[in-house]
Amino acid sequence: MIEQIISIGIASTLLYFAYFYHNAYRREKKLRKILFQKNLINAKEIERVIREKEKQYQDIYDTANSIIIRWSPDFRIHSVNPYAEEFFQMAKDKAEGKDLVLDLFRIPFEKSNEIKSLLWNIFHRPEQNIRQEFDVYVGLDDKRTVTWSNRILKNEFGYPHEVLSIGIDITNRKIAEENLMKSYERILDLYNNAPCGYHSLDKDNILVSINDTELDWLGYSREEIVGNFRINDLLTSSSFEKFQQIIHSFPHETLTGVELEFVRKDKSTFFVSLNSIPTYDKNGNFVISKSTVFDITDRKLAEDKLNDYSQKIQLQNIRLQKAVKAAIKANQSKSVFFSKITHELRTPLHAVIGFSQILEKDPNLPEHLKGYVNSLYENGVHLLGMINDILDLSKIEAGKMTETREKFSLVQLWDTLFSMFSYRFAEKQIHFELLKPETIENRFYEADLQKIRQILVNLLANSLKFTNQGFVNLEIQIKHGLEPNIDLVCFTVKDSGIGIPKDQLHSIFEAFQQTEQGSSYQEGTGLGLSISHQLVDFLGGTIQVDSELNIGSTFVFELPLLRLMEIPNDLIQKSKIGPTNSKEVWHITKVDEKEKEFVQDFLNSEDNQFKHEILQLIKIQNFGQLLQLLGKIPSEAKGKTILLEKVKNKRYKFLIDLVQSSSL
């Protein structure tokens, strides 16, 4: 019984252990299966990464813009990349197994051992990236310079079994470097063999460079001077003092034309003209000065000779000065004479002109005498004009011209000119106009108005004289001057007259000078333009002329005028612009004709004694008494009102025409 129990116990124990080990085996098998699957997955991942790396390497190898060659220690080619195939013009399958130096680089046999020795040196430094540079041949005769980067590749045992060489074609760079070197040599040649000296000084005035030309002048070698000499070692004591004064006055400034005396090695001296330019670093600190030196010894010798001649000339000048003083005194005497004689002549001439005007307007003057009286008047006016011109010229030459300043507006100036010339231009049917009149509005200045007016009167009178048809224009332009209260006022007188030949333009501003056409075309003294030119100079301006024969002339003069900051009210009231075109005068002339009819009707309606007395007072221009007389006439006629207005405003042309059309 006991044996059965023991047997059952042993059997149960054996069954338990059998079950336990069976389950443990199943678990271990399952775990091994799981680990195997994980290892398989990891192996696949590692394989995938390796393939990707190999693909990346192959992509780099295939697409690299450099020559890549793998070769063995016996100089046999293992592989070349596509760029190397294209560069050496040899396919990969033909290159593999060939000799690197003889077949791929195509080095001549006699030089091949030299290149192989150079390459074999790579194996003496297997841990380093070796850089080399040598020439290879592409095709038959195309030599190219390549720089190589070489690295040793080892096998699993650590032995070198392959070399990876990466090459870059630097032929163009080498050519550029050679050209640069040639350019540098040319520049160095120009620097050393220039016809002038060059040197550079540091901040302590030590010479740091000097060219061969200056060394030849001084008699030193470059080794003796550069880094050893200061500038004072090359200068005489007086020149060094001068140089120091200039440097102290203008530290690190550009110097131009400084004359110094240099000392040669043999103690002889020569003179130079020195130009110096400083250079600075990026922080503005002085670094070096570069100087150009010119040998002026010959010039100095010539100057010494010139000084000798100058002393002789000075003696001659003393004699000439005495002669000039005598001539000036004689000229002043001439000017005083002209001034006095013209003053004396003008008084009787005014009487002649005045009486000729009265005689000309006298209705009782016989017809056969009217021509003589008119000729007397015209010649008197012409003679008076010449005398006035000579008087003005004598004042200028005698230095007695003075400037009289007054406040005025450009509108006033134009109105005066228009009233003086509009009827005269209208009589010749010439279009007289102010261009761009808006320019002169509200322009007020203080200057010598009389002289400005005289210049314009001379120019306009010239245009009137030499223009028979077409136009005469005046344009006034305003420019800002250098000072805030100064304007540059530009006056332009342009006409369509006979013009001036180009070869005679240079003489038109000279006194008593006329062009050939001008002298034959009209009488005159030839002083108007000369006086205008001198007046413009006196007022600080400039004048110029441009002309073309049979086309016309343009005179332009520019004056600096003081602009008024505060403008008086009465000046503003007087500066309202009137007519700017001579056609407006023609219109006014027609209006005057209608007004004349009203005045004639008024005169005819009065007693003959009153009419006679009114016309007589107009003839002698006694307007004060005339106004009193008209005030005594008890009439409200329109003609009387018009006559009073014409007398008060001194409408001379209207009144003279009225006398001529009436009978006393």
From TrEMBL:
Q: Which residues form the PAC domain?
A: 256-308
Where does the source fall among the domains of life?
A: Bacteria
The keyword Membrane is annotated on this UniProt entry? yes
The UniProt entry, under InterPro entries, shows: HATPase_C_sf (IPR036890), HATPase_dom (IPR003594), His_kinase_dom (IPR005467), HisK_dim/P_dom (IPR003661), HisK_dim/P_sf (IPR036097), PAC (IPR001610), PAS (IPR000014), PAS-assoc_C (IPR000700)
The record's GO molecular-function terms, alphabetically, read: phosphorelay sensor kinase activity
The cross-references to NCBIfam families, in alphabetical order and at most eight, read: sensory_box
Protein name as it appears in the record: histidine kinase
